[in-house]
Amino acid sequence: MKLTLTQFVSLDGVSQGPGSPTEDTTDGFTLGGWLVPYLDDVFVRRTSEWLDLADGLLLGRRTYEAFARDWPRITDPDDPYTERMNRLPKYVLSNTLTHGDWAPTTVLRGDAVRAIADLKTRPGRELQVHGSARLGNALLAAGLVDSLRLVVAPTVLGAGRRLLTHPGPATGLRLVRHEATPQGLLLLEYLPVGAAPVGEYDGVTDL
């Protein structure tokens, strides 16, 4: 399977609590729900198409517990995500969980990089990471991410946990798809291409 990282971020890179003021108040964060004012039909259609590509979900413990609490409670038959989120195989990385109640769930213990590398050898389309920013950082630093999808909201928060703070080597990305929604969200898809390139600017004649 290809490993795809899907994240919602503010313009200054915050990924914490996009969907609700109570979604994630860790470290006193009070600005949750910042993505919601910008949702529109294009966003829903495109993110639903992305979810169509998933053959599994990979989650960190905190995100898993929040999703396991919230997704089974959604009963609207017209919700575009719920049936698939509840049905897809879930893999949660944790050395503290012993089992997962959000079926079907597999708890992965021990070395996270090795466990995910093994998962990627299995047949299928995409193993998708949703939320789980710390996990996403670690996977990007380890070179395990095959594609990165970002939904960028036109808001600057100035506080909150940021996504791309991985301590590994500088990573280059190639933009392969981009789209702006009517409400101003940027939908961006990147492919990692190895080490981040650098250069020296000597004037426009060098371009």
Question: Summed up, what is this model?
Answer:
This protein is an alpha/beta fold and 207 residues long.
What does this structure look like?
With 207 residues, the chain is of the alpha/beta class. The chain has one domain: Dihydrofolate Reductase, subunit A. The protein has helices at residues 41-52, 61-70, 82-87, 112-120, 133-141, and strands at residues 2-10, 54-60, 90-93, 105-108, 126-130, 147-153, 171-180, 186-195. Strands 4-3-2-5-1-6-8-7 form an eight-stranded mixed beta sheet, sandwiched between helices. Strand 7 and strand 8 (186-195) form a beta hairpin. The longest helix has 12 residues, at 41-52. The model has no long low-confidence stretch (mean pLDDT 92).
What is the secondary structure topology, with strand pairs?
Elements: E1 2-10, H1 41-52, E2 54-60, H2 61-70, H3 82-87, E3 90-93, E4 105-108, H4 112-120, E5 126-130, H5 133-141, E6 147-153, E7 171-180, E8 186-195
Parallel strand pairs: 1-5, 1-6, 2-3, 2-5, 3-4
Antiparallel strand pairs: 6-8, 7-8
